[in-house]
């Protein structure tokens, strides 16, 4: 079974592309959702977060998202510390999930594949590329936030173009090219590669 990463910038269309692969019967691990679940349910991770950020990081056993985001807000070192706890747990969670799958290939959808080093565990990485202005417009509409808020989020990630350069395959999500034929072509290619070894 091949392990395939799916990444791209904020609002590029990663989740949209991942849903098309799911329609084709390919299992998808959503890293963002999984990390939120782990922060609420994984006792070992919860203890590490409490040790690093204080008991206020949890309220009645639930992650106190507001407290934690205030603490790490614009503090590069604290964000790094939080990521150093959450990323390994998420990577381990993905690997464990993959072991239970039987499809010819599986997909891990994650914004921070290269930033977290999880590309080391993957056979290929697909990048979703979309013009930055369009990504901003889509993220603004989806989350009902301002252009400045989207840009502030973007500033916290590796820039989308550098990410795309590191990918093995690229899906273009602009207003000209259709997603479904591109995903179908890549699906055929990945099935072929998975059948070879
Ligand atoms: P993030 O990293 O911010 O979670 P993402 O890369 O997963 O974003 P999506 O959530 O898939 O991006 O897409 C952003 C928004 O744009 C969504 O509301 C989605 O429905 C819409 N969108 C994405 N691609 C298209 C498209 N080709 N046509 C129309 N709408 C699209």
Would you write up a description of this structure?
This protein is of the alpha/beta class and 197 residues long. It is globular, with a radius of gyration of 17 Å. The model has no long low-confidence stretch (mean pLDDT 95). Helix 2 crosses helix 3, helix 2 packs across helix 5 and helix 6 crosses helix 7. A hairpin with a 2-residue loop joins strand 3 and strand 4. Helices cover 55% and strands 15% of the residues. The strands form 2 sheets. Strands 2-5-1-6-7 form a 5-stranded parallel sheet, sandwiched between helices. It has a two-stranded antiparallel ribbon with strand order 3-4. The chain has 9 helices and 7 strands. The chain folds into 2 domains: 113 residues, P-loop containing nucleotide triphosphate hydrolases (Rossmann fold, 3-Layer(aba) Sandwich), CATH 3.40.50; 66 residues, P-loop containing nucleotide triphosphate hydrolases (Rossmann fold), CATH 3.40.50. It starts with a strand and ends with a helix. InterPro entries: Depp_CoAkinase, P-loop_NTPase. Its EC number is 2.7.1.24. It is found in: Cytoplasm. One of its GO terms (biological process) is coenzyme A biosynthetic process. Pfam families: CoaE (PF01121).
Sum up the structure in keywords.
Rossmann fold, 2 domains, two-stranded antiparallel sheet, single chain, 7 strands, 197 residues, alpha/beta, binds adenosine-5'-triphosphate, five-stranded parallel sheet, 55% helix
Please outline the helices and strands.
Blueprint lengths: L1 E7 L5 H10 L4 E3 H11 L1 H11 L4 E2 L2 E2 L1 H8 L3 H24 L5 E5 L14 E6 L2 H12 L3 H9 L4 H6 L3 E4 L6 H18 L1
Helix pairs in contact: 2-3, 2-5, 3-5, 6-7
The protein binds adenosine-5'-triphosphate (ATP).
Subcellular location: Cytoplasm
Function: Catalyzes the phosphorylation of the 3'-hydroxyl group of dephosphocoenzyme A to form coenzyme A.
Organism: Ginsengibacter hankyongi
